[in-house]
Specification:
single chain; 715 residues; alpha+beta; seven-stranded mixed β-sheet; two-stranded antiparallel ribbon; 8% strand; elongated; disordered N terminus; disordered C terminus; STAS_dom; transmembrane; STAS domain-containing protein; transmembrane helix
Length: 715
């Protein structure tokens, strides 16, 4: 028993006890919670515990070596897209891979340079440190060479991009990638492929073209290329064409015979080795003035911190880079997770890529994501886990520390040719346009506008324009959805769009209207205009005006009641009253209490009184797909229902999700009653047919058990 004294209470209330228990449960730490936290933060622990050494290790080794060789080549090539010296691509193929090994949830993607991100980094680099003219005035540039300034810009924007990704991961907002539809990403990456293609032409042709950024930069770049097209280095051009033809043919062979080949033929690596040997043997750099990779420093450079002033200059570009990098990597990871039956966590992926880019940027690498072709190599060569990724990083480390000098004679035109060949998949996405035009024109508009805007305005502005157009299409679809009129499929209790079927049954005077989307403030007026094909408020006002006229004529004796109804006995002209002094009365239900007869509004009226006919006596609203209504929609819907009821149209609603909300919002009253709700369309139709029997040869009465229902079938 508890004791009580004034001002003191030793007995806890139930709410205090529950609150204390909840805090204790949520804030306590035990072995299980610690284990789950470790597995969540370090996902590699989970798959390392089930690692099948004998079955998986050899496959991971083969995959790691193959992926590592491709990563070296792509790292060198994609550095050119970022407007950086080639060897910094080797850093991007090493540091982010190591970090992702511990933090990432995908077992198959290959982390490193991604051409679209590299191009976006290059746009920032050339804006702050242009090829022609002085760099932007930034503290920290003093005493640095042009290449060192560019590395600082690339590392700083990558660091900022990593911070954004890490923050989004910690805030659990991985869902943001859902706003980038497949159509938008397809149009954006196609435009990026066009930018990449144009940016590599100067290497393929052996021309000196300054890097440009900003709106219409692609046009200006093409102009500078064609102005000096006669200066094309024939050796570079021939080498590039030869590399592209051979690589393209072998890649097609790999695709066609991938089921028979144990591993894809690493043709890019093979052609790179051959090109290095030929360039060294014939001294391309001296004899043919070919631009080569040049000196590759041995080892890694000391880490550095980001420049805060560059943060302010590049924040606008860093955010779309963070989104695009994560969106591409997550979509690729999702494909492989479904194929190999394991789960990936979008928020943990954001944390993994954020940490990878932060640590990588500290060691002077640039933005990392995943390259589609490199991930395909890692998966298709038998990679089972990120052990393959770790081994690929070791291959890159060997090149960086020991044998990088062997790549010094490699012509940059070879790297450009390899980049262009790998654009095939992205460029071929243009084939989606005819399909989208036939199937979904708003999506086609999103694709085309995103692609054109990204090509002409630049990738950052193009992505913003594409996202804006995509959101506009969402608003357009929600505000103007495709409503439909349903009809009964003959001989069934199924109701479908009357436009899609021929053998249907529609009782006279009954309309079934289907609303396929939520109803809210932006589309309630659209729905009200579509419901019955006429304005019920206008009809109601016309009827009340007609009643005023009838009462006036009866009072004057110019209208008399006969066996045939109301009869006009005056032959003079009848002027319709235009008194609009009391509009509220015209909006009220028609009142026949002081008239000797109830007016049939669909019959011919005396005294040339004209009132619009209403051929619908029952309206069924199919709200089964309506997930919510806001307050504005509730008010608009209630007003519409009252207008219909006042013109003698019976309204029935089929819904389940919204009924509770309607009750809580005091939706029902003396006119709008809850009895108008039914669970199914067929129940509502049977109720209508009982109230308004249809006498026709095509109607028969069926009896099932104790409940009688009227079933209508066409024979």
């Amino acid at each position: 028993s508890s004791t009580w004294s004034p001002g003191h209470s030793t007995q806890r209330t139930p709410s205090q006890t529950l609150t204390k228990n909840g805090v204790c449960v949520n804030c306590s730490c035990d072995l299980k919670r610690a284990k789950n936290a470790a597995l969540s933060l370090l996902p590699f622990i989970g798959w390392m515990r089930i690692y099948q050494l004998k079955e998986w290790l050899l496959s991971d080794i083969v995959s790691g070596v193959s992926t590592g060789l491709v990563a070296v080549l792509q790292g060198l090539a994609y550095s050119l897209l970022a407007s950086l010296p080639p060897w910094y691509g080797l850093f991007t193929a090493f540091f982010p891979v190591i970090v992702y090994f511990f933090l990432g949830t995908s077992r198959h993607i290959s982390v490193g340079a991604f051409p679209v991100l590299s191009l976006m980094v290059g746009a920032v680099v050339t804006r702050l440190v242009p090829d022609e003219g002085p760099p932007v005035n930034i503290t920290g540039f003093e005493g640095l060479t042009s290449d060192e300034q560019r590395v600082m810009v690339a590392a700083s924007v990558t660091f900022l991009m990593g911070i954004m990704q890490l923050t989004m991961g910690l805030l659990q907002v991985g869902f943001i990638v859902m706003y980038l539809s497949d159509t938008l990403v397809s149009g954006f990456t196609t435009a990026a492929a066009v930018h990449i293609l144009v940016s590599q032409l100067k290497f393929v042709l052996g021309l000196v073209v300054p890097g440009l950024s900003g709106p219409l930069s692609i046009v200006y770049t093409l102009e500078k290329i064609f102005v000096q097209i006669e200066k094309t280095n024939v050796c570079d051009l021939v080498t590039s064409i030869l590399i592209m033809v051979v690589v393209f043919i072998v890649k097609e062979i790999n695709d066609r015979y991938k089921a028979k080949l144990p591993v894809p033929i690493p043709i890019e690596v093979i052609m790179t080795v051959i090109a290095c040997g030929v360039s060294y043997a014939f001294n391309f750099r001296v004899n043919y003035k070919v631009d080569v990779v040049g000196r590759i420093p041995v080892g890694y450079e000391s880490p550095m911190g980001p420049n805060m002033q560059i943060f302010g200059q590049t924040a606008v570009e860093a955010f779309p880079m963070a989104i695009v990098g994560f969106a591409v990597a997550f979509s690729v990871a999702k494909v492989y997770s479904v194929k190999h039956d394991y789960i990936i966590d979008g928020n943990q992926e954001l944390i993994a890529f954020g940490a990878s880019n932060i640590i990588g940027a500290a060691f002077k690498s640039f933005a990392a994501s995943t390259a589609l072709s490199r991930s395909a190599v890692q998966e298709s060569t038998g990679g089972k886990t990120q052990i393959a990724g770790l081994l690929s990083a070791l291959i890159v480390m060997v090149v960086t520390l020991a044998i990088g000098f062997l790549l010094e004679p490699l012509p940059k035109s070879v790297l450009g040719a390899v980049v262009i060949v790998n654009l095939k998949g992205m460029l071929m996405q243009i084939r989606e346009v005819p399909y989208l035009w036939r199937r979904d024109r708003p999506d086609c508009v999103v694709w085309v506008v995103t692609c054109l805007a990204s090509i002409l305005l630049g990738l950052d502005l193009g992505l913003a324009v594409g996202l804006g157009i995509e959101l506009l299409t969402v608003v357009f679809r929600a505000q103007f959805p495709r409503c439909s009129v349903l009809a009964n499929i003959t001989g069934t209790d199924i109701y479908k769009d009357r436009k899609d079927y021929m053998s249907i049954y529609e009782p006279e005077g009954v309309k079934i209207f289907r609303i396929p989307s939520p109803i809210f403030f932006a589309n309630i007026d659209f729905f009200r205009g579509k419901l019955v094909g006429f304005n019920p408020l206008r009809v109601l006002r016309k009827r009340n005006k007609a009643l005023r006229m009838i009462r006036k004529l009866l009072k004057k004796g110019e209208l008399q009641m006969t066996s045939k109804g109301l009869l006009l006995i005056s032959s003079g002209p009848i002027e319709e009253s235009e008194d609009e002094s009391n509009m509220e009365e015209l909006d009220q239900p028609t009142d026949f209490k002081d008239l000797p007869v109830q007016v049939n509004w669909n019959s011919e009226l005396p005294a040339n009184i004209h009132v619009p006919r209403v051929d619908v006596h029952s309206l069924i609203l199919d709200f089964s797909a309506v997930s919510f209504l806001d307050i504005s929609a509730l008010k608009g819907l209630k007003a519409a229902l009252k207008e219909l009821i006042r013109v003698e149209v019976e309204v029935y609603i089929v819904a389940s999700y919204i009924l509770k909300k309607l009750h809580s919002c005091m939706f029902f009253d003396d006119e709008v009653k809850s009895s108008m709700f039914f669970l199914t369309l067929h129940d509502a139709m049977l109720h209508i047919l009982e109230k308004h029997p249809v006498n026709s040869e095509n109607t028969k009465v069926c009896e099932k058990g104790p409940i009688k229902s009227i079933c209508h079938c066409l024979f």
